[in-house]
Write a structure and sequence with these properties.
two-stranded antiparallel ribbon, elongated
Length: 178
Amino acid sequence: MKKMLTIEGDGKRSLQELILSKDRAKLQWEVLQVTYANRLNEVPAKGTTIELVPIGNHCLGTTFLNHNHLITPELSASFDRLSKQVDGFYFGRYDLRAASFEDLEKGNVKVMELNGCGAEPSHIYHPGASFFKAMADLFVHWRTIYSISAANHKKGVPYLSLKEGIQIYKRFKAVTTS
C-alpha cells in the first residue's frame, strides 16, 4: 500500500508552513512551491487533508507500507481475474487506485501501471521494516521468478540469450534515463 504525500490542516498554519514542517514534503519544496504558488498562504481547516502529489513514487514523497496482512482469498481472486486479462503475464506488481478495500477485493480499480518481474516488492520499504526480512522477501521474489521462467521454458518458451537481454536492457535504459 502507498501513503501519498499529504498534509493535514490545523486551522492555524498556512499551506507553506505545513509543507515545510513535514520532512518528506520539505524535500519536494522546489516543485510544491510552484504547484501551489496561488495557495501557499491559504490556511487549511483543521482536519482537512490535502494530497500534495498524486503520483505514488518514493522520489516524490510517497511512503510505501506493508499491508500484506490484508490479503484475503477474495483479494487474490480479484488480482487473478485482472492478471488473466493480460496474455503472458504471470508475475508482477500492480500500481493501482481503489476507493476502498471492498472495491479492491471486487476488482473495482483503476490500474495506473503494471510492472513485470523487474519490479521489486514495494512492501519491503515499510518504515522501520527489517533489512533481513526485506532480503528474505527479495529472495522469495527472485525464486518465484525463476520457477515461472523454468516452467515456461518446459512449455517451449525459449530463454533469452545474453545478447537479447543486453539489447532489452539498453532499450530500457534509453527510455528511463535522460
